[in-house]
Amino acid sequence: MKKIVVFASGSGSNFQAIVEQLHPKRCEVALLVCDKDGAYCLERAKHFEIPTFLFNPKDYLSKTEFEEVICEKLSQIEPDLIVLAGYMRIIGKTLLDAYEGKIVNIHPALLPAFPGRDGITDALNYGVKVMGVTVHYVDAGIDTGKIIDQLSFKRSDEETKEEIINRIHALEHELYPKVIARLLKV
Ligand code: GRF
């Protein structure tokens, strides 16, 4: 059975979509790594009985130090893929070196346009008419790794920001589990 580990910092709706569509039949979601105490993704993990590793970056002197601890956890699992799903940190050298080519992320915009923390707002402020989501490999940059897949839609001028956000999330929940299954060949 192939194993994945999901990293999240917030709501965890993508984490839930991945669990619901893949776990445990097609792959095992072996661990949720979370850097935010109280984040709703932890509740979702509890509900699905997925083990969690919660850490507070402030308890460590550096990114290297907490990534070494994460690597130690991961070495007990030997995941086939690390899946970032709303993990609001840049992956450092420690994790990248250990899992090169095995870390993927989802971004709520059509990269290479609108990378960074708030791709949806940036795209809306720019006034784009075609929006979408991107799954990409993770490298040392911010949303700069090789693109794996994308989905897009044409928005109407009547749609509110909230409606657009919901549409983008729905696309993410459709695309991400499919891409993960394809990469794992499950
Ligand atoms: C998603 O929009 C994802 O594209 C971005 O962070 C958000 C996470 O949402 N990287 P959720 O926590 O999965 O609900």
Strand content: 15-25%
Structural class assignment? alpha/beta
State the total count of DSSP E strands: 7
Architecture in CATH? Answer: 3-Layer(aba) Sandwich
Number of domains: 1
Descriptive notes:
With 186 residues, this protein is an alpha/beta fold. It has six helices and seven strands; from the N terminus they run E-H-E-H-E-H-E-H-E-H-E-E-H. The protein has helices at residues 13-22, 40-47, 63-77, 93-98, 119-126, 161-184; strands at residues 3-8, 28-34, 52-54, 81-84, 103-107, 130-137, 147-154. Strand 4 (81-84), helix 4 and strand 5 (103-107) form a beta-alpha-beta unit. The mean pLDDT is 98. 5-O-phosphono-beta-D-ribofuranosylamine (GRF) binds next to helix 1 and strand 5.
Report a brief summary of the structure:
With 186 residues, the chain is an alpha/beta fold.
Which SSEs are present, and which pair or pack?
Blueprint: E1 3-8, H1 13-22, E2 28-34, H2 40-47, E3 52-54, H3 63-77, E4 81-84, H4 93-98, E5 103-107, H5 119-126, E6 130-137, E7 147-154, H6 161-184
Parallel strand pairs: 1-2, 1-4, 2-3, 4-5
Antiparallel strand pairs: 5-6, 6-7
Helix pairs in contact: 1-6
Bound molecules: 5-O-phosphono-beta-D-ribofuranosylamine (GRF).
